[in-house]
Every structure is written in structure tokens, then in C-alpha cells.
Amino acid sequence: MSSDRNKQYSGRVTKYVILSCMVAAMGGFLFGYDLGISGGVTSMEPFLKKFFPKVYRRMKEDTSISNYCKYDSMLLTLFTSSLYIAGLVASFFASSVTSAFGRKPSILIGGATFLAGTALGAAAANIYMLIFGRVLLGVGVGFANQAVPLYMSEMAPARYRGAITNGFHLFVHLGILYANLINFGTEKIKGGSGWRISLAMGAIPALVLTIGSFFLPETPNSLIQRGVDSQKAKQVLRKVRGTADVQVELDDLINASSVSKTPSHHPLPQILQRKYRPQLTMAIAIPFFQQVTGINVIAFYAPLLFRTIGLGESAALLSVVLTGLVGTCSEFITILTVDKIGRRPLFIIGGVLMFIPQLAVGAIMAYKLGDHTELMTNGYAYSVLVLICLYVCGFAISWGPLAWLVPSEIFPLEIRSIGQSINVALGLMFTFVIAQTFLAMLCHLKAGIFFFFGGWVFVMTGFVYFLLPETKNVPIEKMDMIWRQHWFWKRFVGKEEEGAGNQ
After folding, report:
1. How many CA atoms lie within 13 A of 328 on its CB side?
2. Which positions, given as ranges, span the membrane (predicted)?
3. pLDDT for position 443
């Protein structure tokens, strides 16, 4: 069994794989762009004055309201969160498209719909156009996030799968950085139209993904799953692996596809079977834990948070650029180490790096930022900025990339598409909940919000330590072995499957 677990196929990382995965990873760039752009424009005064005048007046004129409550508006949070509820619904449609027609069509739909949403948002004349544009962006994100991690995981050689699939989240951080730099520049444009340029600039990566998707090869896994001639799958496999010696990997793909079709079940009831309990648990727990790290509080509302503690509009946006740079640079640590030291150690190290700064930020804000007192001095404000950078570093080496990598590699072929859809849909649902409730939570919990998220980081780090097996270097079609060897999950995987796996 251990020999199968460490089984390696022939082949290498070819230019063909790298170029294909870079184009596909633009789906992550779009996701990151949206995470970064929405927080920036909601801190721009012309944008608030046009679409959210009540928040603008409260920020400028109301001295009776708590410092923690100046931005508390359900309509303002709806601007951010509407994208994610639309993405949640779209991800289930994307599952059917990805299974029936392949990974490429979902990627194409994602890019094209995001492009349409970008155009509508940039041209918005009223709140209804603005929100509908966000809904279209959400459909694009739902399709791209469902298909791209699967695509990259299936294209990558097993021993480099972690590094290549983490490219998705690297592009998420690059998208955030791109958005932060745009916001920092457009905020200075006179006349109050900077927010339109910020929203419009999403068209560039959306065009790259839409046009590039026409030239992407379909994955061998998808070709075999959909009953395409195995010789075509073999040709693609030879091209992406850079060798003619692909028969062993091809045989495993064909065998996995055969198992996935016998007996025939609809994938949703199938994933509810006892033998898939470990994978289903991870598909639910991982996206939940990723959101209760509190990262999207930083992604969505960092400019508002930095303004709350006393930084000016320009300084707040510059601070967000800095946190974006920290996150992007930290991603390279994961790419270089994930296939060497493994997933579990990075999860645990990242958990410690997130837990300590959150407690420290909560303590500083509780001590120095009252309801109606003057805002923090620059010394304390910049201390909060440094701690948030450390927190972002911890997330970027752990729950950022690994929460996309691990679900993309643990599902057997027969439940892979529905499993990824559940992972993406729940991620978007939890993102919606956090985005929609954070400003109200900040108003009511005040500095305690950081203790709230810090407590969850402690819990999720324990979850990884006890319940998540290591997946590094395990071929994607042999991943079922890690559950049969795990001290807890082996009780859910029946002996029948164990015997079949040893044949």
C-alpha cells in the first residue's frame, strides 16, 4: 500500500502545462481583483456620496455615532456581498457544465460573464445597475472558481501538484495587489470619477481569461470522464507530460473513470455515502474555516478599518497596497515549500502566525480606540498595520492557498466535480455571510471582533492537526489511500474499498 501511495508517473513540468495553468489561473486573478477593488471603492468619498449618501453624511458630520459604527450599512455591505450569493448559485450550474462538457467551457463562461459585469459596474448610474453588475461578476467568479482549481490540479504532475495548484491563489493575491494599486492611483483623480476606472480595469484580466480559454487544452481526466476516445486523452497526456511513457498514468485514469461510473449514481446523493464522509467533511469544513480566519474582513474592508483607526483616505489605501505586497510575496514561500514539507505543517505554522497578531490587534484597539474618543495616534495605527501584515503573511502561507489546493486534490473522479462545487459554493456562502455582517459585527463587538476570529483560528489549527491527513506527493487517482490509513477516517471507509484499493 505504501508503494502505491508514493507512486510516481513519468513526465515533467512542461512549458505547455505552465502556459495553460497561467491562463487558467487568471480566474484566480479575477477573484482577487474583486476582493481588492470593492474595499477600495467603498472608502472613496465620491463613490459613497453618489451611491451611499447616508454613510457619507455619517462619516463626515455625525459626531454622536461610535467610531466602530460609522460605516455600518446593510446597503453598503450588500454591494460587496451580492457577488458572493450570485457566485454560490452559479457554482452549482458550473458543476453540471464542468462534468458534462469539460473544464474549458466553465472557464470561458466565467471570463465572459465577469467581463459583462465589469462593464455594467463601471457605467452604473444608480444603485440597481451597480448591484446587478456585481451579480454578473458573481456568476463569473462562481464558474471560474469551480473549474480553475480542478483544471490546474488535473494538469499538474503529482509531485508538483501543490506548487502548480497554489498558482491559483498566487494569482488571487496578484489580483488583490493589482486592485489595490489601481485604487491608490484612481483615488487621486479629480472630478470624482476614479471609482469608475477602478471598476472598469477588471476588463483587462477578464479579456485575457476569455480569449485564452479558447486555446486551453482539455484535461485528460475530463476527456476520459466524458467518454472521449482514450487515444485523444493519451495524446494530450503525452503533450502535457513531455514524454511518450504515459501508459501507467493513463491506465489509472481509465480505471478511476470506470469506478466512477459503476454503479451509476447522481453525484450529489453519491457524495453523501458513508465512504465519502472524509471528503464531504473537508468540503464543508475547509471553506468555513477559511472564512472565519477573518481574512475577507481585511480584503473587503481594510481601507475602512484603517480609516476607522485614524489613517487618512490616501494613507489607508497605501496601507492596503502594503498588505497586498506582503500577501503576494508570502505566497512564494508556499509554492516553494508545499511539495517538500507538506500541507499540514504549513497549515499549523500559518495558524500560529494568524492567531497571535489577531489577539494583539484586538488588545490595541480595545485599549486605544474608544467609541467617541479621538482616533489612534499614528504610532498605534502603524503598529496595527504591522500586525495585520504579519497576519496576512500567516494566511498567505496556509489557509489562503491550501484551502483551494487540498479540496482540489482529495476527491475521487466520480465525485470530483460535485465535491469542488460544494467547496466553492460553501466558500461563497460563508464569504457572503461575513461580508454582509462584518460592519454590523464591528459596530456591536468593537475590538472583540478580532478575539472572535482569533478563537476560530485556534479551533481550525486543532482540526488540521487531528483530522487532516498529509496529501503531498500522492497521485490524485490514488488519494483514497490516505483516508484508509488515517487513525480516525479509516472507520468510515469500508473494508471492501480497502480490498479493492490493494488489488
Report:
1. 21
2. 16-33, 74-94, 106-125, 131-151, 163-182, 194-216, 280-302, 314-334, 346-367, 379-406, 418-442, 448-468
3. 81
Q: How far apart are CA 494 and CA 473, in angstroms?
A: 24
Residue 9 grid cell = 508517473
Q: Is the dihedral of CA 84, 85, 90, 93 positive or negative?
A: positive
Report the pLDDT value the prediction gives residue 77, as an integer from 0 to 100.
83
> Cβ-count burial of 359 within 10 angstroms (0-12 exposed, 13-18 middle, 19+ buried)?
middle
Percentage helix, strand, coil for the chain under 3-state DSSP, each rounded to 5? 80, 0, 20
pTM: 0.77
Per-residue cell: 163: 506548487
pLDDT tens across 69-107, in order? Answer: 777 788 888 887 888 889 888 988 888 898 889 899 999
8 Å CB contact between 179 and 203:
no
Please tell me the distance from the alpha carbon of residue 152 to that of residue 166, in angstroms, as a whole number: 9
Q: Which residue has the cell 479540496?
A: 407
Q: Which pLDDT value is given to residue 412?
A: 86
Q: Mind listing the pLDDT tens digit for each residue in 123-132?
A: 999 999 999 9
Residues constituting the chain: 503
The grid coordinates of residue 297 equal 474582513
Residue with cell 487558467: 24
Which residue positions in the chain have pLDDT lower than 70? 1-8, 62-63, 67-68, 259-267, 299-305, 307-313, 316, 369-378, 494-503
CA 383 to mean position of chain CA atoms: 28
Q: Residue 287 in 3-state DSSP? A: helix
Give, in order, the Cα–Cα distances in Å from 410 to each of 265, 283, 487.
19, 9, 17
- What residues have CB less than 8 Å from 386, skipping those under 6 apart? none
> In this structure, what DSSP letter does residue 69 have?
G
What is the C-alpha end-to-end distance of the chain, expressed in Å? 10
